[in-house]
Amino acid sequence: MGLFAACFGFLRRLLCPPSRPAKQAGPRSLAASAAEKHRAAAHVHAESRGRLLGQSQAAYKRGDKKAAHDLSVQGKAAGKKMEAENLLARRAIVEPQGMLKGGRVDLHGLFLAEALAVVEEFLAAHLKSKRFKQLLIVTGAGHHSAHKDQPVIRPRVEALLKERGVAFEEVHKRGALLLRVPGGREPLPGGGKVPDGVFDNAVKMANASGHKDLPSIHKNKL
Fold it and tell me: Global pTM?
């Protein structure tokens, strides 16, 4: 009986291994999911804004000024909701990175205006503190751009750096910029290495909310 139980237990373990706990999503995956949710909501509000403002114009042309005014107010309200959701998306992408402490920032998933604002904040903090000798800005190489491998964000970031007189070089197959900070005290942890999964995660960011070509909706996105 003991031998039978032992054999049965062995076969059970072999055929029915204990289930493993689900793998926890990393910070980047969580940030991408949160950003997707807010981008999707922003897209809905953007479509609503366009529809309402179009109806407002039509009402004005037919002489119904009250309806035109009411529809215009509703359209502007939808626009404000869109902006609020995009702001939440930006925060979901940027804040978990701790860019003001870590000396690096990943711009994947940001629209052009958002990315430039983030870079301005990033530079202002680090050029003043001079903690690191180098800084890293991940711009992406433009493979997920609506302009067919013609990057939108990287050239504008490069222009901004030149305006500020910040020396830089392209690294990681032109997907990132390594900046030199005169007077910086500490080496950048990891140097110019881009964290694992950044460029894989870009696909999820670019395809936020299931729109396979989201940049075509907001054309100044990475």
Answer: 0.72
